[in-house]
Amino acid sequence: MTERAAVPVPAPGFTPARGAPAVVIGVGNEFRRDDGVGPAVVAALRDLAPDGVRLVVTDGEPARLIEAWAGAALAVVVDAVRAQPPRPGTVHRFVVGRPGPMGRPASSHGLGLDDAISLAVALDRMPARLIVHAIEAADLTVGLGLTLPVATAVDAVARAVLADLGPYVQGP
């Protein structure tokens, strides 16, 4: 898994408030092959996510993303992305500790996460911390089922999301 910080992140040892709300947002459309990886990770977490963690599936429209993460101490977003050169199934992890410019990611949707972040900043509706797990897609055509390299990434991303949630749901 590749780890990249999109903007400055909190100092090591960051400790959120105990019981802080967390949400995992799976972005995508399960009827567009690999675009369904976000919802697939959320499905994998259904019986594993700790109490108090909300699981949400959305199409990635910025207003719906903002509504899903509003008031959260931690929002974890899982989405398919296009990359050049393509490396299907490769996972990138971005941590957004404070809002700032993210550049123009190659989202598999018309409007990208950066649009949602820009709008959330303007509306003062950013979560305290945002973590994005972006999985490189192979096939975004109409159809059911993830391609093998993307399907293989689902369990690893679900485990990574659970690790991200740990500080937000564990006691001192």
List the helices and strands and how they pair.
Elements: E1 2-5, E2 22-27, H1 37-45, E3 53-58, H2 62-69, E4 74-81, E5 91-96, H3 113-123, E6 129-136, H4 148-169
Helix pairs in contact: 1-4, 2-3
- CATH fold naming: Rossmann fold
CATH architecture: 3-Layer(aba) Sandwich
Amino-to-carboxy terminus distance: 28 Å
What share of residues are in beta strands?
A: 15-25%
Question: Could you explain the architecture of this structure?
Answer:
By secondary structure, the protein is α/β, with parallel strands linked by helices. The protein has helices at residues 37-45, 62-69, 113-123, 148-169, and strands at residues 2-5, 22-27, 53-58, 74-81, 91-96, 129-136. Residues 2-19 and 99-110 have low confidence and may be disordered. It has one domain (2-7, 21-169): 3-Layer(aba) Sandwich (Rossmann fold). The chain is built from 4 helices and 6 strands, in the order ββαβαββαβα. It has a 6-stranded mixed sheet with strand order 1-5-6-4-2-3, sandwiched between helices.
Outline:
This protein is an alpha/beta fold. 29% of the residues lie in helices and 22% in strands.
List keywords for this structure.
disordered N terminus, 172 residues, alpha/beta
